[in-house]
Amino acid sequence: MKYVVLGCGQFGRLAIKRLLSITEPSAITAVDQDPSKLINLHDGCHKMCGEAIEALNTINPAPRDTILPMVPIHLAARFVCRRGDLVAAPLPSNLSDLLPNSMKLDSCNLVCSRASFCCPDDCPEDGACSITGEFREPLYDDIARLELPDHHKIILRSFQILPGVGGYLYSVLLSVLENCRSGNNLIVTSCKCHAAVTAVFKS
Fold first, then answer.
1. What's the CA gap between 5 and 162, in Å, rounded?
2. What is the pLDDT of residues 134-148, one digit of tens each?
């Protein structure tokens, strides 16, 4: 298995450092559009300067390769819009009220979280919350149960690879595009406690 880390800021570099504990440097490709962010990474890592979606097209990962989105965009939604005949669209008007600690970034994008505090960067996803000790119902399950009849939901679950490091297979990212329907879609990327939601329209 190989890993593609998209974004080499604070969290991307931390992800690479932790990945090096479980895999060879040659299995890691680090991508950032700022060349200075690629300096001082492990010499054995593959490095690519470029924008995240364009880099994915260039790299053309294998289906079983793992994508680690560490860029300040909703990567899955941007990927879908770039690859398919889709455009950003307004979110359902009541969606913010249905999700925990939600924050609209704009009319098309929203983030939400089970946590009302800053989570530790090495949080273990399994079991009870490491801060409150409370059991956490997976956020992706709650979102899947939402009744939004005017929108088709496509939920991409982000799996924890290491504490504080999550991602998904490239094949799963491709399936998001395949599962979009004509009309309004909600692209959701979610781990157990956090989610990014983007509304897109397919003609």
1. 14
2. 888 899 999 999 999
Determine the Cα–Cα distance for residues 45 and 19; give it in Å rounded to an integer.
11
Torsions phi, psi for 157 (to 5 deg)? -85, 130
User: What is the rounded CA–CA span in Å between residue 202 and residue 112?
Assistant: 24
Q: Which residue has the higher pLDDT, 179 or 123?
A: 179
Q: How confident is the model at residue 123 (pLDDT cuts 50, 70, 90)?
A: confident
- Round to whole Å and give the CA distance between 146 and 186: 11
HEC secondary structure over the chain? CCEEEECCCHHHHHHHHHHCCCCCHHHEEEEECCHHHHCCCCCCCEEEECCHHHHHHHHCCCCCCEEEECCCCCHHHHHHHHHCCEEECCCCCCHHHHCCCCEECCCCEEEEECCCCCCCCCCCCCCCCCCCCCCCCCHHHHHHHCCCCCCEEEEEECEEEECCEEEEEHHHHHHHHHHCCCEEEEEEEECCCEEEEEEEEEC
- Residues 171-180: tens digit of each pLDDT: 999 999 999 9
pLDDT(43) > 80 = yes
Whether residue 100 is predicted with pLDDT greater than 80 in this model: the reply is: yes
User: CA 158 to CA 19: how far, in whole Å?
Assistant: 16
